[in-house]
C-alpha cells in the first residue's frame, strides 16, 4: 500500500505561514530547556529580534548548548535573572522581568522577558517571548527626568532635592560624615520683574544658576526650590567649609553684571550642618532661620548660626 503523503503536505503548507510569522514577529520567541543537571539549550528560536543572540550558526549552537546566550545579559542584570529562573523552576511560576542584552555589534538594548515553565522529562521547559522595550525605558527615564528637573533653569527641583537629601542624611547618619545645606535667594528680585519684566527675570535666574554651578563640585547639588529660592546640598562638608562656599557664591553673584542698568544683584544665604539624629525638616528649618537672619541684618550676607 503506497504511503499517504496528504497529511504531511497539508502540515507543510500550514507550517509555512507560521514559520513566516515567527520570523517576522517583533521580539524573540523561544523555548529554553534546562535539565536536572543544569545543562541548558534552546530548541526553538524565532522572531525578528532573534539576531540579538548571534548569527544563524551561533543560534544553531544554542540548540545544543545554550549557556552562551546568557553571556549577552548585562552583568548587573544577570543575578536578578538567575534568581527569577530558579524561582520559576521550583514553583513553575511565570518569569516576568526586564534585562539588558548586548547585541552582536556591541550596543545594549532593554528587553522584557516573559516565560511560562512546565515539567519536561527530568528538567524544565520554558515557553517564552522577549520584546525590545528600549524606547519605553528611555521614555520612562525622560519622564522621571522631567519630574525631577526645573523647567526654567534645568536644575534639580524641590522634589529631587528632597529625595537626594534623604539619601545623604541616611549616609551621614550611618557613617558619621558631615553634611551641610545652604539655602539662598535673590535680594529684591521682585524689583527686577517689576522694572525689567518677567522675561528678563527668567534670564537672570538662568544666569544665576550657571554662575553658582560653576563654583560647585561634581558631588554637590544645586537645586531651585521655586521662584528666586535655591538650595545647595554639600555632602562630606562641615559647616566652616560650607560657609566658605556660601561666601564665594555671594561674592560671585555680587560681582557679576546681569545687564541691569544701575542695579547690582545680591543673594542672602543661610547655612546649616546636619546634626546626627535630627530630621530633614529640622535641618531645613535651621538653614532657613539663618537665611532669615541674613536678610534681616542687611542682606548680601551668609549666616551660619543664630548668634550672627
Automatic annotation (TrEMBL):
GO terms for cellular component: plasma membrane. CDD domains: GGDEF (cd01949), PAS (cd00130). Its cofactor is Mg(2+). It comes from the Bacteria. GO terms for biological process: cell adhesion involved in single-species biofilm formation; negative regulation of bacterial-type flagellum-dependent cell motility. The lineage of its organism: Bacteria, Pseudomonadati, Pseudomonadota, Gammaproteobacteria, Oceanospirillales. InterPro entries: Diguanylate_Cyclase, GGDEF_dom, Nucleotide_cyclase, PAS, PAS-assoc_C, PAS-like_dom_sf, PAS_fold_3, Rev_trsase/Diguanyl_cyclase. GO terms for molecular function: diguanylate cyclase activity. Residues 95-145 form the PAC domain. Its EC number is 2.7.7.65. Pfam families: GGDEF, PAS_3. Residues 177-307 form the GGDEF domain. It is an enzyme of class 2 (transferase). This is diguanylate cyclase. It catalyses: 2 GTP = 3',3'-c-di-GMP + 2 diphosphate.
Amino acid at each position: 500500500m503506497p504511503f499517504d503523503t496528504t497529511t504531511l503536505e497539508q502540515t507543510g503548507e500550514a507550517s509555512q505561514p507560521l514559520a513566516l510569522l515567527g520570523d517576522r514577529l517583533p521580539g524573540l520567541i523561544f523555548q529554553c530547556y534546562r535539565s536536572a543537571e543544569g545543562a541548558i539549550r534552546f530548541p526553538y528560536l524565532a522572531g525578528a529580534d532573534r539576531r540579538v543572540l548571534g548569527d544563524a550558526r551561533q543560534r544553531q549552537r544554542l540548540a545544543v548548548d545554550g549557556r552562551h546566550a546568557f553571556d549577552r545579559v548585562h552583568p548587573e542584570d544577570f543575578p536578578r535573572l538567575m534568581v527569577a529562573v530558579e524561582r520559576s523552576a521550583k514553583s513553575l511560576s511565570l518569569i516576568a522581568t526586564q534585562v539588558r542584552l548586548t547585541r552582536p555589534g556591541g550596543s545594549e538594548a532593554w528587553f522584557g522577558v516573559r516565560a511560562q515553565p512546565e515539567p519536561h522529562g527530568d528538567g524544565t521547559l520554558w515557553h517564552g517571548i522577549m520584546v525590545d522595550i528600549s524606547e519605553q525605558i528611555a521614555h520612562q527615564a525622560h519622564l522621571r527626568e522631567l519630574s525631577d528637573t526645573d523647567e526654567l533653569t534645568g536644575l534639580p527641583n524641590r522634589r529631587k532635592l528632597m529625595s537626594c537629601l534623604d539619601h545623604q542624611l541616611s549616609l551621614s547618619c550611618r557613617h558619621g560624615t558631615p553634611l551641610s545645606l545652604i539655602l539662598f535667594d535673590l535680594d529684591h528680585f521682585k524689583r527686577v520683574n517689576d522694572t525689567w519684566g518677567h522675561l528678563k527675570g527668567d534670564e537672570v535666574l538662568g544666569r544665576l544658576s550657571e554662575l553658582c554651578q560653576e563654583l560647585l563640585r561634581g558631588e554637590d547639588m544645586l537645586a531651585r526650590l521655586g521662584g528666586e529660592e535655591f538650595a545647595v546640598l554639600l555632602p562630606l562638608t562641615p559647616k566652616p567649609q560650607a560657609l566658605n562656599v556660601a561666601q564665594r557664591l555671594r561674592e560671585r553673584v555680587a560681582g557679576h553684571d546681569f545687564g541691569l542698568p544701575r542695579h547690582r544683584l545680591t543673594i542672602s544665604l543661610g547655612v546649616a550642618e546636619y546634626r546626627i539624629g535630627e530630621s530633614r525638616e529640622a535641618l531645613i528649618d535651621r538653614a532657613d532661620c539663618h537665611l532669615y537672619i541674613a536678610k534681616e541684618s542687611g542682606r548680601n550676607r551668609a549666616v551660619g548660626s543664630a548668634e550672627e
